[in-house]
Amino acid sequence: MKKKLVRTAVCTALTVAFAIPAFANPFADVPRKHWAYDAVNKLVASGIVDGYGDGTFRGDRTITRYEMAQIVSKAMDKVSTVEQKVIIDKLVAEFGEELNSLGVKVDGIQKQLDNQIKFSGETRVQYDSETEDTTYRFRLGATGKINDNTKMNVRLSTADSDGIDKTSLDDLGSPSIDRFNVETKIKNVDAVVGKQDLLLGKGLLYNSYEADGAAITGAKTTWKGLTLAYDNSGDTKVQAVDYKTQLYGTSVGADYLKIDNTVDANEYAGLNADVKVFGKTVGAEYIRNVSQKANGYRIGTNILGAQVSYIDYDANALPEQSGFNFAGATSTGFGNNSQADKGFQITYGRNIVKNVGVVLDYKNLDVAGDQTKATLNVKF
Q1: How many other CB atoms are there within 10 angstroms of residue 228's CB atom?
Q2: What string of DSSP letters covers 19-59?
Q3: Rounded to an integer, what distance in angstroms lies between the CA atom of residue 185 and that of residue 265?
Q4: What is the pTM of this model?
Q5: End-to-end CA distance of the chain, in Å?
Q6: Any idea what the Cα angle at residue 223 is, between residues 218 and 226, rounded to 5°?
């Protein structure tokens, strides 16, 4: 087992080292024609091995555990992939005592990985009883650290420019960029510039995660629970204010939204809160379209693992970007908030295995009728 670990350590060190340009080998006992000349040269160039004070490498000598621990310690600073980290973690466990004696902090490995580009992805398959369609979507996101306070985010998606998922695997085609932004922190202010998501309140007013095509391309800043968002990039202009705080142990929030497009402009106000009732958390949202004097509200709680909600809204109370909209609906069904409606929504989700989950969403409204969505998500 220990021999296997040593071989693994050498392989890992070489893997890391070969990303570093070589320079002239300083060891007198490793001639240029030696079979290990190139490998030793790379290890020296990467700073993983130093040799001995007399300028020799002594490759035929059995190394001690402390010398092996030094190699592991130096290789730790070169880790750049999850696979390399897994190998190094095993070596750290084997040579932990020696590393501690050398004063090596193993948490440096994670810091090294945090400085690399991180990738994440999602594949989604969804069935909608309203349209009788099965849709497909693939997303791949990447986050790159620019400095300790700034990072860049980009995401590729197979959905179209309006965020509509494909109804056929043959239509997936080449992914396009649907999110691209830079996040930074200046003292106590968090700022995001570029194409990004926007969530107001609990999502009944504005939710780009649920409403297709609702991402904003502009700026968003957050300071002590206050968020300001602005999008003036296209035909639809968005101005938004979101405020969250704790009031007597209760989470409360207030929102303002103005949406101005080529047809008309509407201003909205919203309030939301999480209230404890008989030991259960009840979430409530209230939305008012100030421009058209229309109201809407939703109240819900968790029952047996499912989120059960009751909703009631006037015609035009909710904007198209509301999280209650469902894409792909008919003009008389869901997604059409120009008519008043009310009823129940039940959402249940659970993980089947790690990174694989299912979500069942059922709606029963007076006008729109019944709708069921079944979604399978695979994340990686």
Answers
A1: 16
A2: TS-------TTS-TTSTTHHHHHHHHHTTS----TTS---T
A3: 33
A4: 0.69
A5: 32
A6: 80
